[in-house]
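The authors assume throughout that readers already know how a fold can be written as discrete tokens. In essence, backbone conformation is discretised, so a fold becomes a row of integers matching the chain in length. A single example would do more here than another paragraph of explanation. For illustration, here is how one protein appears when written out as sequence plus structure tokens:

…
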Amino acid sequence: MQGEKNSAALMRTHALAMENREKLRLTGVCDVSGFDETAVILVTDMGELTIRGEALHIDRIDLEAGILELRGRISELSYEDRASGGSLWSRLFG
């Protein structure tokens, strides 16, 4: 049974839907590496995703289901492969 849950988690679809650059809903989210009101750093099934903006706020998070919803003024979305490095601080303020 545990193996089935792990397989299901590995097969999640990563998708995002944005509404008016103010609301963002993501699937395929594995973890939140860091966040403040100007940046949210997520580990997704497709690599690390950094969301930058103003007044960012996580409305909903369900890591078991891989779902995250946030709102605020979204100005940038950028992906990095999981193998790339850097400290949390350099990624947040770099």
